[in-house]
């Protein structure tokens, strides 16, 4: 049997391949074709130029297209007109024994109406350059709303050529359920970003050695104040609900301490360092491989042998003493052709080390800002929504449904969705309005006060949180007007009005603070009392930060409540409050050292150093999986 046959290709393709004179599949073809034929999946394939990528996606594409259906089923995007024509030609060759398949090339510099006419005649496959494709979409000359397959060929080249926005816009015009196949010689950050944004759990294949100067690892740093290091780590974990990471610390003591803190705060973490016995280390590694641990906190020495695929993030909680060590650390991710991110949490005094590392790894770092509470909220909510969507129903539930329906039957679908998601959202908002952002930036932007990032750096202004928003029919202008009138202030006295759905932020100069608090807290809006508070995101005002706050946990902490790692908000909460009770936000119901990954919504609030957990009401009151058996604590 010929090797192409073994890949699962059908008769007409085998015949065409014979005509082409291909004797054996190339490596990328051998790897990609069976996977793509077998099921509908997203795929990222990295292989050097000239390795036969066109056939790697072309053969399965031709085989999967329904020739009897004349609707457009596939879109191939390619960077240039030449490539576009070349691919079209290849695809025509591949499909020459398959009756009824039409491939149309769409590219700039030729008549758009003629191309549109060809498509109208029935083109199952369109091969296009992004610019012309966008053009055609804008003019309504093409419909890609129902395609099944989208191929991004030579993705790195397309992005090099500045087609990022076009690609994003074209992809948003395609259905979510399609399969996306990304082929590229290299994996620069922009390509990884596209993959992250538009693909779901892509299969990843890499062929040959990676092109030098490129890598499957992207490097990011986050500048924070030293005291915010730990908080930053938690937020990064919260912003990446699927994180599977190795967190590097410099000393055994720090390693142990950070792991313990994370566990206390409800994360599935464990420490790996030389003070553990061999048996302990084996146990930790087994849990990590089994993914019962999401964050493995390790010393460089202990992590040396770690060879675990699918690590999504390496986190440099502290930079190593020897910057060469950085390479060893970041090499724990981006393995086996998978994409990975190496993150450095860095303080101002360490910034120059970043440049030194850049020289060593011959790659640039991207400076990022720690996600704000609101951003984490968005991420977690989407994660929650997806989790709900993907949850398989155990029919045991049927027994309980009558009672549940009894309670909920009067709610419309829309109301029900809103309420379900608000179960988490409300808590978060309650937390967020009392919390501050911890971002800082390496440039002197903050000092200069220009280009201010959202919700911090207000140059002495006071930022407020108010519980009215777009739900109350405000946009930023109308809210500004409303505040101006209610408070009898001038137009410029209210600024940075930022309206969210159920709440908003705005700023005033400090001299108006008393008035704002007095007046606004005593007015009603359509019968509802307005609540205004000074936001902790008050820019320069980090004085209120009190990480040593020793409020005790008011509630009992029940261990290992929900298996971690799915949905639910967790611990984006710190101990920055300097008093007052804290409700809402992310909280923790769990503190097992290795809760299992699958299962209910997880949530965890940070505990303060005295062991108190600023916890919100228990998750099981709302969304948790209290019906599940609790797992015994491991520690
Ligand atoms: P790339 O993936 O870099 O775009 P192409 O798909 O354009 O590479 O293929 C490069 C060349 O190799 C083309 O001329 C193509 O016809 C040829 N080719 C592809 N697959 C095979 C094969 N299995 N055997 C022989 N030649 C092949
Ligand atoms: Mg190619």
UniProtKB/TrEMBL annotation:
Residues 533-600 have a biased composition (Basic and acidic residues). It holds the Pfam family Helicase_C. Residues 2-30 form the DEAD-box RNA helicase Q domain. It comes from Flavobacterium quisquiliarum. Belongs to the DEAD box helicase family. The lineage of its organism: Bacteria, Pseudomonadati, Bacteroidota, Flavobacteriia, Flavobacteriales. A motif (Q motif) lies at residues 2-30. This is RNA helicase. The keyword ATP-binding applies. Residues 225-378 form the Helicase C-terminal domain. The keyword Cytoplasm does not apply. Residues 533-635 are annotated as: Disordered. Residues 34-205 form the Helicase ATP-binding domain. Its EC number is 3.6.4.13. Keywords: ATP-binding, Helicase, Hydrolase, Nucleotide-binding. GO terms for molecular function: helicase activity; hydrolase activity. InterPro entries: DbpA/CsdA_RNA-bd_dom (IPR005580), DEAD/DEAH_box_helicase_dom (IPR011545), DEAD/DEAH_RhlB (IPR044742), DEAD_box_RNA_helicases (IPR050547), Helicase_ATP-bd (IPR014001), Helicase_C-like (IPR001650), Nucleotide-bd_a/b_plait_sf (IPR012677), P-loop_NTPase (IPR027417). Gene3D superfamilies: 3.30.70.330, P-loop containing nucleotide triphosphate hydrolases. Coiled coil: none annotated. It is an enzyme of class 3 (hydrolase).
